[in-house]
Structure formats: structure tokens, C-alpha cells
């Protein structure tokens, strides 16, 4: 081939996911951005981070690759190129050109095939990973969408009809020689919680109510935080608090006494008393709790929180070995 022929060779179009139906609040997320909370930047990222990590590993992506967080369907996506995909998290109703899909399994998509995700049957959020990852630009070290700040992800917003999401086919490693799957994490209605910095500012009656009642998820909840419904908790101490650092998992109690569990899009500082902190290993459960879901807080300690996190890491190692022998 001479130089002129080489120049005239048409360039290959980049692989894409075309959004035919966007659903509601469908966003690009990864494991979140860290190291910027001192600047007031939220962590963002998948609310059920373990589910996105599992989906990524099923298609042989590194765990930090970006995928889609799907909440309310119907969502329809057309593949421009052959690709592997996996969906983890909530149990769902979905198909690939009419062939039903199962949660936690890797499947192969042919060029032009359409994935339709109609919604969750149990749980609330599902995560789609595609071999190579959703290749939107990184912002502050992450591809996650921050809806409130309007940056990251795809144009800093939820997906819309007609969007074309780039896929990094160069990075794609899985070729789906065989169908593989993994068990999904079991959701239970208990969240292990460490007493927070202002726990002692609540009287014995409020402390007892915090641990013993079943809390409900309010319809006013969002990615910033889950507002809870139940018997209000009244703070015994008087006086205002100075603003202090907060993070995902912190449980704040505003003046109305109804707790708020902060999630991935939470602000960096707050002034409400922090009665508790959900341990990292249990925070994913809130992502799968629909409005009206009821659960209890279980008092935990630092050693138990560390043991739970270590157990989750061991589960990742076992998954890695079963899928790829490493």
C-alpha cells in the first residue's frame, strides 16, 4: 500500500451505545472521585459500588471502569459493535433483542442489537458494564456524573434520547468465549452502624428509638441522601453545632428529628448532629432500598466494621479466581 492509499483509507467509526430510550436518572458512574472533598466536591459514583464492580469484572474490565446506573425504565440501548455486557445489582426485567437476560451473567451483543431494560423487580438500581467501559472524559480523576454540580459523566447530566455513549473497544479484553455468572449479594433489612461523634448528645430515649425502631425510606430521598421516616429523635444537648466534615454513610439528624443517611452525592460539610455512621460494607444496601422499604440499625464497632470490609475483599478475590484463575 502506497502513502496515498494509506491516507485515503477511511477511519473506523468509534464504538458507541446509542440511547433509544433513556429512562429516568440513568447516569454514567464509576467508583467515584476521591481527594477533592476539601474543595467541596462530592464523591459521586455508583450508589451500589459492589454491583458495578462485579459487572465490570464479569466482562474483564478493571473494577474502576465506568458503566451505567439504571433506576427507572424503560431504557433501550443499541450496540454499534460486537461487545460483552453484564448487568448486576437489582433483579430486573430485561432482554437483548427479545432474549431474556439474567442478573449477574455475562452475555454477548452483536452489532445493531438492542438491550431493553424495563426496570427492577426487586431492589432499585442495576448497573450495566460493557467490555472496554463507557469512555466519557475523566473529570477530576473520575467519569462519574455529579448531577448537582453538572459535570462528569455524559455532559454532566442524566442520559437523554439520542445520546451516543463512546465505548473504549481498544481496552476491551473479554470476548465471551463462554457464559459466566456470579451470585448477587443478599439484601437484608439491617444496616450496621457505628455511633457517631454527636451520639452522646441524644438522650437515652432517643438512642433507644434509634436502634430499636424500623425506619422507612422516604419518597423525598435521592442520591445525596436517604431521608428516613419513623419516630423523631430529639437531641438532648442545646446550642448550635459548628460546621463539620461529613461523608457518605454519615447519619445526620436535622431539627425535625428524622435522620438523613448521606450517600455518594452528599455535600462535604454539614451542621446537623451525626448520630451514627453506616459501615462501608453495608452502605450498598441503601442503593437497593425503594421508598417505603423498612430496615433497622444494628450497633457495631470498629473491629466489626473492619472485619466486614475484609470479608468483602475476600469475596472479590474468590470471584477473581473463579472467573480468570488469578
From TrEMBL:
What are the alphabetically sorted keywords of the record? ATP-binding, Hydrolase, Nucleotide-binding, Transferase
NCBIfam families, A to Z: urea_amlyse_rel
Q: Which SUPFAM superfamilies match?
A: Cyclophilin-like
The record's section on Gene3D superfamilies has:
Cyclophilin-like
**Quick check: keyword Glycoprotein in the entry?**
no
Give me the segments passing through the membrane: none
PANTHER family reported for this sequence: 5-OXOPROLINASE SUBUNIT C (PTHR43309)
Protein's UniProt name: Biotin-dependent carboxyltransferase family protein
Q: Which organism is it from?
A: Undibacterium parvum
Amino acid at each position: 500500500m502506497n502513502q496515498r492509499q494509506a491516507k485515503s483509507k477511511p477511519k473506523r467509526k468509534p464504538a458507541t451505545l446509542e440511547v433509544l430510550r433513556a429512562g429516568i436518572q440513568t447516569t454514567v458512574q464509576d467508583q467515584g472521585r476521591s481527594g477533592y472533598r476539601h474543595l467541596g466536591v462530592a464523591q459521586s459514583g455508583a450508589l451500589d459500588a459492589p454491583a458495578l464492580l462485579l459487572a465490570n469484572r464479569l466482562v474483564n474490565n478493571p473494577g474502576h471502569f465506568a458503566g451505567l446506573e439504571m433506576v427507572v425504565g424503560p431504557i433501550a440501548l443499541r450496540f454499534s459493535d460486537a461487545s460483552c455486557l453484564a448487568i448486576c445489582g437489582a433483579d430486573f426485567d430485561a432482554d437483548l433483542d427479545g432474549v431474556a437476560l439474567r442478573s449477574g451473567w455475562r452475555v454477548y451483543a452483536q452489532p445493531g442489537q438492542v438491550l431493553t431494560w424495563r426496570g427492577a423487580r426487586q431492589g432499585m438500581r442495576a448497573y450495566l458494564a460493557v467490555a472496554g467501559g463507557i469512555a466519557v472524559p475523566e473529570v477530576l480523576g473520575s467519569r462519574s456524573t455529579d448531577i448537582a454540580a453538572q459535570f462528569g459523566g455524559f455532559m454532566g447530566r442524566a442520559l437523554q434520547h439520542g445520546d451516543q455513549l463512546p465505548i473504549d473497544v481498544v481496552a476491551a479484553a473479554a470476548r465471551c468465549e463462554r457464559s459466566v455468572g456470579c451470585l448477587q449479594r443478599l439484601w437484608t433489612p439491617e444496616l450496621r452502624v457505628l455511633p457517631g461523634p454527636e451520639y452522646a448528645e441524644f438522650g437515652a430515649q432517643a438512642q433507644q428509638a434509634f436502634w430499636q425502631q424500623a425506619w422507612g425510606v422516604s419518597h423525598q430521598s435521592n442520591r445525596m441522601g436517604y431521608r428516613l421516616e419513623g419516630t423523631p429523635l430529639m437531641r438532648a444537648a442545646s446550642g448550635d453545632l459548628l460546621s463539620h466534615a461529613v461523608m457518605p454513610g454519615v447519619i445526620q439528624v436535622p431539627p425535625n428529628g428524622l435522620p438523613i443517611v448521606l450517600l455518594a452525592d452528599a455535600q462535604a460539610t454539614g451542621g446537623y448532629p451525626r448520630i451514627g455512621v453506616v459501615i462501608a460494607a453495608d452502605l450498598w444496601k441503601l442503593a437497593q432500598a425503594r421508598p417505603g422499604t423498612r430496615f433497622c440499625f444494628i450497633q457495631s464497632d470498629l473491629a466489626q466494621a473492619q472485619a466486614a470490609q475484609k470479608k468483602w475483599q475476600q469475596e472479590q478475590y474468590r470471584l477473581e479466581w473463579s472467573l480468570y484463575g488469578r
